[in-house]
Amino acid sequence: MPSKKIVVLTGSGVSAESGLSTFRDSGGLWEGYDINEVASIEAWNNNPEKVLEFYNLRRTQAAKALPNNAHLSLKNLETKFDVVIITQNVDDLHERAGSTNIIHLHGELSKARSEHNSEEIIEIGDRTISIGDLSKDGSQLRPAIVWFGEMVPMIEVAANEVRTADFLIVIGTSLSVYPAAGLIHFAKHETQKVIIDPSNIETNISSNWRHIRKNATIGVPELVNELVNMKDIA
Predict the structure, then answer these.
(1) 206: which strand partners?
(2) Is the pTM of this model over 0.90?
């Protein structure tokens, strides 16, 4: 009998518990940077130096962070289930925890891309990007991040994964950022649905959701332990 499929949608609340702060934690600021001045295509066009400075800082911070118990527990789900992680986070903590099937909706800090061709992508790890660093096509390298004002290229791929999920787990997100928040509406009615977040977010979910009001590092290990010890989740 095929393994049951679990799709996990993770947000900034998961990374925050590894010490990576979020814009919402600080009123739209990150280390003194205004989100509108560094995280949009307009910001890049107006001041690419500032955008590169900001993402170089984020890349350094993410490289120093370590996977937490939530990341590590999600890897354990793979011992029994077919697991797909859809993340809004741009760090590589899921990868470093050992998860093997990850969709990055908003891009990845450890990659750079051509300014003019989103398909021209290179791995840069924790290295910085400077003005004058060029891609193979001769254009300026930029972070391989999906900014405000840009299309989310992996959203359809993610939606198709949710459509076929037997179990949908949402972790560390308020479900207020679209289009990612809209993914939950692609789940089948019979799909079992759980959200792990300490916030009061009932306005964004229907009554057939189970809400675990705990931080990710506490709630995720508890749920994973429950699932791997069940004979079936149907």
Answers:
(1) none
(2) yes
Is residue 106 part of the annotated active site? The answer reads yes
- From the candidates 104, 106, 116, 185, give the one annotated as an active-site residue: 106
CA dihedral 131, 132, 133, 136 (to 10 degrees): 130
Using one digit for the tens of pLDDT, what is the confidence trace for 107-143? Answer: 999 999 999 999 999 999 999 999 999 999 999 999 9
* CA–CA distance, 166 with 188 (Å, rounded to integer): 8
